[in-house]
Structure formats: structure tokens, C-alpha cells
């Protein structure tokens, strides 16, 4: 640890699932006692629901309630210098970031939003089938078609986005711990 490395990093967990109450986010931001606000929206079922939403409307496929919460809290988040990490991007991190930037613009705020992408491996589906990749539990061959195919990414891309100055990092599918571990890697310089 260097002299400039903080000894304490205060992280507030704002949500544990898509549809969670916004009350926790409000309380955490308004307490002024956090450095990071993190949101975990995604489960496998949630990804399937978001994939279906994206099929109907290509601009969607992300946790829209994240945008609602941020629309309410973004001025306070910015005023208190709280950084945000959320896997709210679901099947469309770029669309989520664009929706958030539109909210910021409407509020007259400038925020640096980064996305972590690369979890969507749908384009590799045929190659995975040809390589005889199998279901990890049943060992059955992969089906001919899938609504979506996503890999779990880790925390280092989140840390890198924070290192590069992002105020808000939006991801697609990451391991559950990544939204918390990413800020810790960034803050403490963990390798």
C-alpha cells in the first residue's frame, strides 16, 4: 500500500436483483458515507428476460429501473463524488449507457460513463457447437439455437474503467462479486 492508497473504501450495495427497491440506493447516497454505489441486477433468468426484451425492441435489453434510480439520484451522486458500478447493462450495456447519458444531458450534468462489454458470445455459438462444447451440468450437447449466450467476465475490466476516470461503469454479465471487487482492485491497486 502506498501513501496515497486509501485505507478504507466504503461501498454501498444498492440492489441485489432486478426489481429491487430503490430505497437502499436513496439511503446510501443521502447518507454521504459511501465512495461507491454498486448495483447487482443480473441472474440467469434475468438475462433471458432481457434477451427477450431486446428481441422486441433492440434498444432495450438492460435493467431500465437502473435508469429510473439514476435519474433521481444522479445530481446527488455527482455532488458527493460517488462512483457507480452496475451490471445493469444486461444484454445491451451500450444502450444502457446511452439512456443514462440522455438522463445526464436532460439534468445538465456531465458524467463519464464506461461500459464493460465482451460477455456476449452469441456469435461463437456455431463454433462452440462444432467444438462439441457441452452443458456443464448435464453434459448434453448445446442446442441448435439459443436466445443468448454470455460468458461471465471478472472485476479487472471494471477496475480499469475506474482507473481511466469513469464516474459510472455499466457492465453486461459479470460474476456477482465483480461490481464490488472492481472498485477494491482500483482503490488498492491489487494485481
Rg estimate, integer Å = 17 Å
Number of helices: 7
Distance between the termini: 12 Å
Secondary-structure class: alpha/beta
* Uncertain ranges: none
Helicity range of the residues? 40-55%
Q: Strand sequence of the main sheet, in spatial order?
A: 1-2-3-5-4
Tell me the strand percentage band.
Answer: 5-15%
Oligomeric assembly: single chain
Mean pLDDT over the full residue set: 93
- Biggest sheet record: 5 strands, parallel
Shape: globular
How many DSSP-defined strands? 5
Order of helices and strands: EHEHHEHEHHEH
How would you describe what is shown here?
The chain starts with 10 loop residues before the first strand and ends with a helix. The model has no long low-confidence stretch (mean pLDDT 93). With 191 residues, the chain is α/β, with parallel strands linked by helices. The longest helix is centred in the middle third of the chain and has 16 residues, at 64-79. It has helices at residues 23-31, 44-56, 64-79, 93-107, 125-130, 156-163, 178-188, and strands spanning 11-15, 36-39, 83-86, 113-116, 168-171. Helix 1 runs parallel beside helix 3. It has seven helices and five strands. The chain has a five-stranded parallel beta sheet with strand order 1-2-3-5-4, sandwiched between helices.
Amino acid at each position: 500500500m502506498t501513501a496515497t492508497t486509501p485505507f478504507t473504501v466504503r461501498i454501498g450495495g444498492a440492489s441485489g436483483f432486478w426489481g429491487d427497491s430503490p430505497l437502499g440506493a436513496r439511503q446510501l447516497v443521502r447518507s454521504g458515507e459511501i465512495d461507491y454505489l454498486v448495483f447487482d441486477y443480473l441472474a440467469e433468468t434475468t438475462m433471458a428476460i432481457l434477451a427477450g426484451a431486446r428481441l422486441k425492441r433492440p434498444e432495450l435489453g438492460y435493467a431500465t429501473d437502473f435508469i429510473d434510480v439514476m435519474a433521481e439520484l444522479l445530481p446527488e451522486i455527482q455532488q458527493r463524488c460517488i462512483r457507480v458500478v452496475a451490471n445493469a447493462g444486461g444484454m445491451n450495456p451500450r444502450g444502457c449507457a446511452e439512456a443514462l447519458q440522455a438522463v445526464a444531458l436532460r439534468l445538465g450534468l456531465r458524467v463519464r460513463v464506461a461500459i464493460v462489454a465482451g460477455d456476449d458470445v452469441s456469435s461463437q455459438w456455431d463454433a462452440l457447437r462444432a467444438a462439441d462444447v457441452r452443458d456443464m451440468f448435464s453434459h448434453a450437447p448445446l442446442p441448435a439455437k439459443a436466445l443468448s449466450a454470455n460468458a461471465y467476465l471478472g472485476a479487472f475490466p471494471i477496475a480499469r474503467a475506474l482507473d481511466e476516470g469513469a464516474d459510472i461503469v455499466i457492465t453486461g454479465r459479470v460474476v456477482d462479486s465483480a461490481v464490488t471487487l472492481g472498485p477494491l482492485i482500483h482503490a488498492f491497486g491489487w494485481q
